[in-house]
């Protein structure tokens, strides 16, 4: 009987060792960490550093396969974004859900000259016409992150600033 239990234990152990790793993203790959500079708890201020525009919490999700953002604006806006590296397209994807009119935005892109640049299009709520969106996150040397959101109604010939905020990391 003891031999039977010993054999069963050895078979179980060898099966566990030989089992393939779980399917999913290889979160150890560097592409999955290109946006990690944005992870943290932040107070977001205007470029002058004075007015608080809101607070944001960005955290790793799904075992490091993506990041989520939880935004609370000082004037009542709020939203959540999910961001992930898509190995098939070799691009970063963002899906934003917000409480403002036309509050869904889908973006894609990647690292350009040290910044994360994601872009997409949606309908301009005032004109009903297509509008290009481009958001750039730039890690600064002081540990802060600048987020510049721009929109274009002329297919990228000219851009207007929709949001410009500096993310200041909070320690609590």
Spatial extent as radius of gyration: 22 Å
Order of helices and strands: HEEEEEEEEEE
For the record, what is the CATH homologous superfamily label? Calycin beta-barrel core domain
CATH topology category name: Lipocalin
Distance between the termini: 58 Å
- Structural class computed from helices and strand pairing: mainly beta
- Residue stretches low in confidence (pLDDT < 50, at least 5 long) are 4-21
Protein model, in words:
Helices cover 10% and strands 51% of the residues. A hairpin with a 4-residue loop joins strand 4 and strand 5. With 172 residues, it is mainly β. The protein starts with a helix and ends with a strand. It is built from one helix and ten strands, in the order H-E-E-E-E-E-E-E-E-E-E. It has one domain: Calycin beta-barrel core domain (Lipocalin), CATH 2.40.128. About 10% of the residues have low confidence.
What secondary-structure arrangement, pairings included, does this model have?
Blueprint: H1 2-18, E1 40-45, E2 52-61, E3 66-73, E4 78-86, E5 91-98, E6 104-112, E7 115-123, E8 130-139, E9 145-152, E10 160-169
Antiparallel strand pairs: 1-2, 1-10, 2-3, 3-4, 4-5, 5-6, 6-7, 7-8, 8-9, 9-10
Describe what is shown at a glance.
With 172 residues, the chain is mainly beta.
Q: What descriptive keywords fit this protein?
A:
172 residues; mainly beta; Lipocalin; 1 helix
């Amino acid at each position: 009987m003891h031999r039977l239990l010993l054999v069963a234990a050895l078979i179980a152990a060898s099966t566990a060792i030989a089992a393939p790793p779980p399917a999913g993203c290889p979160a150890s790959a560097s592409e999955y960490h290109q946006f990690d500079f944005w992870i943290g708890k932040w107070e977001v201020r205007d470029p002058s550093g004075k007015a608080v525009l809101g607070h944001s919490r960005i955290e790793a999700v799904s075992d490091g396969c993506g990041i989520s953002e939880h935004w609370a604006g000082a004037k009542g806006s709020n939203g959540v974004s999910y961001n992930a590296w898509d190995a098939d397209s070799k691009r970063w994807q963002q899906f934003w859900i917000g409480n403002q009119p036309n509050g869904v935005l889908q973006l894609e892109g990647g690292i350009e000259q040290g910044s994360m640049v994601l872009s997409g299009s949606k309908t301009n709520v005032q004109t009903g016409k297509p509008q290009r969106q481009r958001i750039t996150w730039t890690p600064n040397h002081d540990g802060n992150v600048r987020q510049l959101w721009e929109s274009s109604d002329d297919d990228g010939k000219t851009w207007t600033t929709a949001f410009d905020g500096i993310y200041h990391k909070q320690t609590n």
